[in-house]
Design brief:
Layout (H helix, E strand, L loop, with lengths): L4 H7 L10 H9 L9 E5 L4 H14 L4 E4 L11 E3 L2 E2 L2 H15 L9 H15 L4 E5 L14 E6 L7 H4 L3 H9 L8 E4 L4 H10 L6 E5 L4 E4 L22 H15 L3 H4 L2 H6 L8 E5 L2 E6 L4 H16 L8 E5 L6 H14 L4 E4 L12 H10 L5 E4 L3 H15 L7 E5 L1 H13 L23
Parallel strand pairs: 1-5, 1-6, 2-5, 6-7, 7-8, 11-15, 12-13, 12-15, 13-14
Antiparallel strand pairs: 2-3, 3-4, 8-9, 10-11
Helix pairs in contact: 1-4, 3-9, 4-5, 7-8, 12-13
């Protein structure tokens, strides 16, 4: 009897990570190269790439282009990895695509794809089937050996690079940059966030040979600079209205998306970026949700620079009275190369915000194992904060304890709870919220409503 395709997909998780493009290339060939049915914008990096992809895809949709979006990992449902015009594809279509993949895997010589490779193939088939005109494709891990490198990309984008997955990508920032910059399609536009580490910069400049087709995005100057002109004499920082050299990561991701759309001539989508920001719901990234009468701020800060950016934004929003300082924290993370460095920005936020209660928990294991909550609590305590740190293995129990404390601190105005760390922690929390039908985290394009209540996009 034929194995159920969903069980088959689940069984592929046992294959782990595959540092090769061979399996995907063979299967794409057997499926008649679906990835060549549409051009793609290919995005890699350590932080901000998902936000950049979501805003860029929504801008394209708002400009009238039928747009496919492939991202990973997912928070609740695997369908989230494959979206068309903001909405995940249906179970029926996902299953239909999986069945085709399962069939071609059994052709001699048989091929066993990884779970990730199979979901990428589902995206390519679904995009071809539904007539997608352009795709936005996020790399999963690294770049050089990521299945997404096989898409027909007419533009590549590299977001901020930080130390992550060092056991696979390399021990230094430069080695990680080399793996990620390998997504470049020589002779086609390439846009990268300016790195302040000169070894990273040199590595990327060596990888990208045509310096007239490549741009550095300088957030500190709010402008793009061609690689070929990057060594020119220093120009003063941008003095644009009220600009102090720091921008929220969402804004930086949007500006990177805007620069990419301009370079490939998608001018209508370029002009929709501001509207796309306002109508993008990117779950788990600086996301405020209401749950059982408390406000939760959710953020997948899964590596040191992601944690630093998130904490920086929390403090910035507090000083500008844009959002309150959380009163309670729930944290859980996967294994880190340097746990102390990862936690340092959070400790600074705890001290600066006079946050007295931290609940340390253990997210479900994903691609990487979770840090034991008692070990994480010990590390937090060793950094010298006065906060009361409580380790609770269960995510649900940790969240319930945090909510109880939130009410104890102020029963009339319960203190906001910051839930931060691994994407698997945020996924588990969103799942708890979703069980009560509190949110729709699946559709990333919030329909703009006209004055008459009618959606002008429909």
């Amino acid at each position: 009897m034929e194995q159920d395709v969903w069980s088959w997909l689940d069984s592929l998780k046992s294959f782990g990570y595959n540092p090769s493009l061979d399996n995907t290339a063979i299967l794409l060939s057997r499926l008649d190269q679906p990835q060549h049915s549409f051009p793609s914008i290919h995005v890699a990096g350590s932080n901000g790439k998902g936000t950049c992809c979501a805003i860029m895809a929504n801008a394209l949709t708002l400009s009238g282009v039928c747009t496919g979006l492939f991202t990973s990992p997912h928070l609740i449902s695997v369908n989230e990895r494959v979206r068309i015009d903001g909405a995940p594809i249906t179970d029926v279509l996902f299953e239909h695509c999986l069945r085709q993949i399962q069939e071609v895997c059994q052709i001699n010589p048989t091929v066993d794809p990884t779970f990730y490779e199979a979901t990428f193939l589902v995206a390519m088939l679904a995009f071809r089937e539904l007539g997608v005109q352009r795709a936005v494709v996020e790399t999963g891990l690294g770049g050089r050996y990521d299945s997404t490198r096989l898409v027909d990309a007419d533009c590549c984008v590299l977001t901020e690079i930080s130390l992550e997955h060092t056991e696979i990508l390399g021990e230094t920032l430069a080695e990680i940059a080399e793996e990620k910059a390998a997504i470049v399609r020589q002779g086609r536009p390439f846009i990268a966030v300016w790195p302040y580490d000169s070894s990273v910069r040199k590595t990327i400049e060596r990888t990208v040979r045509e310096h007239d087709k490549a741009w550095w995005w300088r957030g500190d100057r709010l402008e793009s600079v061609k690689f070929s002109e990057a060594v020119k004499a220093f120009r003063p920082l941008s003095r644009k209205k009220g600009y102090d050299g720091w921008i929220p990561y969402q804004k930086e991701a949007a500006m990177l998306a805007k620069a990419a759309l301009w370079r490939i001539g998608e001018f209508a989508a370029h002009d929709e970026i501001d509207r796309a920001i306002a109508h993008t719901n990117w779950p788990g990234r600086m996301q405020w949700v209401e749950y059982r009468k408390t406000s939760l701020l959710l953020d997948c800060a899964h590596n040191p620079s992601g944690m630093a950016r998130a904490c920086e934004q929390i403090r910035f929003q507090k000083t500008k009275d844009m959002a309150p300082m959380p009163g309670v924290i729930v944290i859980g993370c996967t294994e880190q190369k340097d746990l102390a460095t990862f936690l340092q920005p959070l400790v600074e936020t705890i001290v600066e915000g006079s946050i007295d209660h931290v609940y340390v928990t253990q997210p479900p294991d994903g691609r990487k194992a979770a840090v034991d909550c008692t070990e994480l609590a010990r590390e937090l305590e060793s950094q010298g904060t006065d906060a009361k740190i409580t380790a609770i293995t269960s995510v649900q129990q940790a969240l319930e304890a945090a909510q109880k404390m939130s009410f104890q601190l102020d029963k009339d105005l319960p203190q906001p709870i910051l839930c931060i760390g691994s994407i698997y922690l945020i996924g588990a929390i969103l799942q708890l919220i979703d069980e009560e039908g509190m949110i729709d985290s699946q559709n990333i394009l919030v329909p703009p409503k006209g004055e008459d209540g009618v959606d002008p996009i429909a």
